[in-house]
Amino acid sequence: MKILVTGKEGQVARCLADRAADHPALELVFCAREGTEVRLDLAEPATLRAAVQQVRPDVVLNAAAYTAVDQAEDEPELAMAINGQAPGILADEAAKIGARFIQISTDYVFNGELDRPYLPSDPVNPLGVYGQTKQAGEAAVRAANPDHLIARTAWVYSPYGKNFYKSMLRLAETRDELSVVDDQIGNPTSAFEIADGLLAICDDWAAGGRERLGETIHLVGPEEMTWCGFARKIFAESTATGGPTCHVNAITSAEYPSKAKRPRNSRLRQPN
Ligand SMILES: NC(=O)C1=CN([C@@H]2O[C@H](COP(=O)(O)OP(=O)(O)OC[C@H]3O[C@@H](n4cnc5c(N)ncnc54)[C@H](OP(=O)(O)O)[C@@H]3O)[C@@H](O)[C@H]2O)C=CC1
Ligand SMILES: Cc1cn([C@H]2C[C@H](O)[C@@H](COP(=O)(O)OP(=O)(O)O[C@H]3O[C@@H](C)C(=O)[C@@H](O)[C@H]3O)O2)c(=O)[nH]c1=O
Ligand SMILES: [Mg+2]
After folding, report:
1. CA 201 → CA 12, 33, 219, distances in Å?
2. Contact at 8 Å (CB) between 138 and 146?
3. Spatial separation of the C-alpha atoms in residues 181 and 185, rounded to whole Å
4. What pairs with residue 218 in β-bridges?
5. Of all atoms in ligand 1, which is nearest to the CA of residue 14?
6. Domains of the chain
């Protein structure tokens, strides 16, 4: 089964590539703005339709996105084109050739006011531009292609790209103290867990199954903690392996001003 993956250097895309060898029934074709045989720019609709027509996959997996949460507040139109509109165009082109569509979405579609982990059925109400654009992307995919899977994840870390885990270790090289917010709680998620979860579903599809088709699921790591707790865990592990460490001060979100407001409660749960 051929899977067209958007993005190549992103965290999830790199982990999908690393895991591909464990899934002999799946052939992954990566496309990005540059450096790939098939060129795809989510901000250029013509390249989306052309990429799907050129590769003619069985599944399109959209692993690329505009992920700069604060910067999105300053360029909402570009973020909306990439996260809100492009997924619908790709899902529509996939539908035209009978291909299924996988969209990755985020905890930031919720406002975080609920006092329990969010279920897929809970209403969305994003606080910032990034979340609004990802919500629009979800809606566009549902409307364009009934054979979709929307997998919401959160707080992604990996050895690749930019993420909180790598930022903490990098900052610790030059600092012996950091202040990290302790009033936002969520589920840190390894990009490898996301890759494994999505590829297991694709294996089912390749074998003729319809697992999770038409569903919105929550695919996150098993533990819940605050960003401050996550930072302390990162340094505890780093210390144990002789890596850099750092003292972590707990602060409130009000003490860490940022352009975009983040949800207080980002926890996601999958009911079954
Ligand atoms: N990171 C996180 O904490 C979370 C991420 N998600 C979602 O998971 C998915 C994967 O995220 P993650 O792997 O962390 O993302 P990354 O930020 O690591 O990578 C994003 C990728 O998207 C590509 N991209 C950005 N703009 C375009 C464009 N116009 N055309 C083509 N490609 C583009 C980037 O390419 P380039 O290298 O060229 O810039 C990059 O490869 C996304 O849908 C994201 O919204 C959900 C929850 C949490
Ligand atoms: C670097 C740093 C961050 N923080 C805070 C800011 C923020 O609230 C939190 C995490 O920082 P980040 O920059 O990783 O936050 P952010 O980029 O908002 O992370 C989000 O990215 C998008 C793509 C998602 O979809 C979300 O699930 C989530 O992972 O930690 C500190 O308190 N101290 C620090 O020194
Ligand atoms: Mg960030």
Report:
1. 15, 27, 12
2. no
3. 9
4. 152
5. 13
6. 2-161+189-218 (3.40.50.720)
Residues 198-247: tens digit of each pLDDT: 999 999 999 999 999 999 999 999 999 999 999 999 999 999 999 999 99
Q: Are 17 and 191 in contact (CB under 8 A)?
A: no
CA distance 85 to 136: 7
Catalytic residue selected from 66, 118, 130, 165: 130
130 is a catalytic site residue: yes
What pLDDT sits at residue 272? 76
Centroid of ligand 2 to alpha carbon of 164 (angstroms):
6
Can you read off the two tokens belonging to residue 257?
A: 């001003």
16 CA from centroid of ligand 3 (Å): 21
pLDDT in tens, 130-156: 999 999 999 999 999 999 999 999 999
Query: Residue whose CA is closest, atom 25 of ligand 2?
Result: 106
User: Which atom of ligand 2 lies closest to the CA of 167?
Assistant: 1
Nearest to 32 by CA among 43, 24, 22, 21: 43
Contact 63, 16 (CB under 8 A): yes
